[in-house]
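I hope you will forgive my troubling you with a question about protein structure. The full record is reproduced below for your convenience:

——
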Amino acid sequence: MTEHWQAGGFGLYVHWPFCQAKCPYCDFNSHVAAQIDQSRWVSSYLSEIKRYSEEVPGRTLTSIYFGGGTPSLMAPETVAAILDAIRATWPTANDLEVTLEANPTSVEAGRFRGFRDAGINRVSMGLQALNDEDLRLLGRLHSAAEGRKAFNIARNVFPRVSFDLIYARQHQTPEAWGAELSEALALAADHLSLYQLTIEPGTAFGDRHTRGRLPGLVDDDTAASMYDMTQEMCAAAGLPAYEVSNHSSDMAQSRHNLVYWRGGDYVGIGPGAHGRLTLDGHRTATETELSPSSWLKAVETRGSGETLREVITPEAQAEEYAMMALRLSEGLDRGRYVAMRGRDFDPDALDRLFRYGMIEVTTDRITATQQGRRILNTVLAELLVD
């Protein structure tokens, strides 16, 4: 039987923590810095690659992902040095996917050609909105025209380009979102990431919301109707949802994110990066220093940026797999779940959710319906109750 972690692939995530400005809705580990010594960062990334290569040698990488922050602020030479070290360390799949996140403000044709020459073959671009007023409300530094121009540059340089939009924004109507989504689908090549605006604690938006200074937020019923509209329009355009917030044509799914959602192994390098690795037969979680300066110092002085390494219990591993896999349209492999946890889901919970139209159930798989994926946290709470 294939080991659980092999079924999901093997990926590597590189976190670049720097941005030109902090977006008010963002709760990612991103920081604004006036000066960045990229040579120090290269040395530390390479040190971490070497350390992990000694722990998980010989695994075939299926994906590499540069996330952030704004990785398109990296020098192409920095990206090239990291990718050269990775290729010299692990065997790679013939169809290795190498993604770099980009913001339109940091897009130049010359820089993008440098990234392509370094080995980037997929770009994920944070457009977020296609009109200037909403971009301003979201705290973005680019205009709608700059976003379209950047996307066209990327599409002419890289074989695969995706972009992100946020909907259920302040004062947004379903009609306005439908018009914007129509334009996005006309622009899109083969992949779109479409996220509902969420107000996260600790963000600028979260603070404003607490003080009653974030007007025009979309109510739950309107957000749900926008979600349903999104599913229907994308499917009709040949980009059905393969995950709650991600849409693509056939074979254009994000392979790196599929590693996460299918419960594969992945190395996490950089400030705040998480990893999941099977070591000595045990599924193990890793975490790293959040602060960029603390992470650099830890790697340079201790030889490791990790702050946590712990074995995940079979129960926690099974729950994590369920939480990830049920986001996918392909759903969850019941055999894998049972092998992890030692038992199947409660049959009464399965029957109840099936009757309510929230899940589909077969002998081998459980999948959340469109209605179920809309309220997935509620479905999971029903399924994972002890």
Q: What stands out?
A: The first strand starts at residue 10 and ends at 16. The chain is about 40% helix and 25% strand. The mean pLDDT is 91. The domain at 315-383 is CATH 1.10.10.920 (Arc Repressor Mutant, subunit A).
